[in-house]
Design goal:
By secondary structure, the chain is of the alpha/beta class. The chain has seven helices and 13 strands. The longest helix is centred in the last third of the chain and has 14 residues.
Length: 310
């Protein structure tokens, strides 16, 4: 019996990183009868290695953390784990090509906050629009998020990004085409991850990274990166509408100052959060972002899908 860390799933097989190298394993016994989210990238599993070089997963160690979202397209609010045992979330956007989508980035950050995971905002392709860095700092600085500018074509910020990754299990989340795989390939050339081109017609990235991949990082300190696919439908499963305000760190200093204890920060009189937004304490569009997500998590998942593009 040995243990390993799940790197990826392909069909019914799992690629697992062990002290002896990577092995391909399948589920055994009662694990086969559980739902499809039973084992995900980052899970520490117990393995039985056979003489023919194959292995069986016979147990899953308790998770210290999990990053999860609502399963895309589901009418029932079932959690869809993306990765287990995560230490941080790196929310990646591009300065241009594709244009930044702050509302989508906010959803990644809300999911991370809802799962009690620290986040860093990565602004990639900074060579295309350097003014974007100040806009991002104005938006996310009041929330306490570090904004790191990076570029692969004109190498910038890569050493700082490597330091962030060292010794940690990190999830890279972002819409397709922002350059998540390109960043990893630049830092660790041997990875040779698939990279999606950006469609000239619509500016949408092609989904080359089909499933979450846990990538062991070489060098001192090690670590893992979870390279996630571009998420067409972003869910915020498991976020209690009444706790959504806490998922916006810049709101926290004002939450207990509202006139009503159950203030939703929508249109209630005496709302300290809305007053703070009006006073420029933080980016007012973050409040609009909160209100849109509040509408989404306050109704059944199947009826909220049409609201997400707003």
């Amino acid at each position: 019996m040995t243990t390993g860390v799940v790197l990826a799933r392909t069909g019914s097989a799992y690629r697992v990183h062990t002290d002896r190298g990577a092995v391909v394993a399948t589920l055994r016994g009662r694990l086969k009868r559980r739902d499809d989210d039973r084992v995900v990238a980052g899970d520490v599993v117990e393995l039985e290695l056979r003489g023919d070089g194959e292995a069986s997963i016979c147990g899953v160690r308790p998770r210290r953390s999990v990053l999860a979202r609502r399963a895309a397209g589901q009418r029932s609010p079932r959690p869809q784990p993306i990765a287990a045992n995560v230490d941080q979330v790196l929310a990646v956007a591009a300065a241009r090509d594709p244009d930044p989508n702050p509302r989508m980035l906010d959803r990644f950050l809300v999911i991370a906050e809802g799962n009690r995971l620290p986040s860093v905002v990565i602004l990639n392709k900074i060579e295309l629009d350097r003014a974007a860095l100040e806009r991002f700092r104005q938006r996310y600085g009041p929330a306490g998020y570090q904004v790191l500018a990076t570029s692969v074509k004109q190498p910038e910020g890569l050493a700082a990004l490597r330091d962030l990754l060292r010794g940690r299990e990190s999830v890279l989340a972002g819409q397709s085409g922002v350059g998540k795989s390109s960043l990893l390939n630049a830092l660790y050339p041997g990875l040779n991850l698939r990279i999606g081109a950006v469609s000239e017609k619509g500016g949408a990235g092609k989904h080359t990274t089909r499933a979450a991949l846990l990538v062991p990082l070489a060098g001192a300190g090690g670590g893992y990166v979870v390279d996630t696919p571009g998420l067409r439908e972003i869910g915020t499963w498991g976020i209690d509408p009444e706790m959504l305000g806490v998922c916006y760190p810049e709101f926290r200093g004002f939450l207990d100052q509202c006139r009503f204890d159950n203030c939703r920060h929508l249109a209630e009189p005496g709302c300290a959060v809305r007053q703070a937004a009006d006073a420029g304490k933080f980016d007012p569009d973050r409040l609009v972002s909160y209100q849109r997500i509040y509408e989404e998590v306050s109704v059944p998942s199947w009826s909220s899908a049409r609201r997400r593009a707003r």
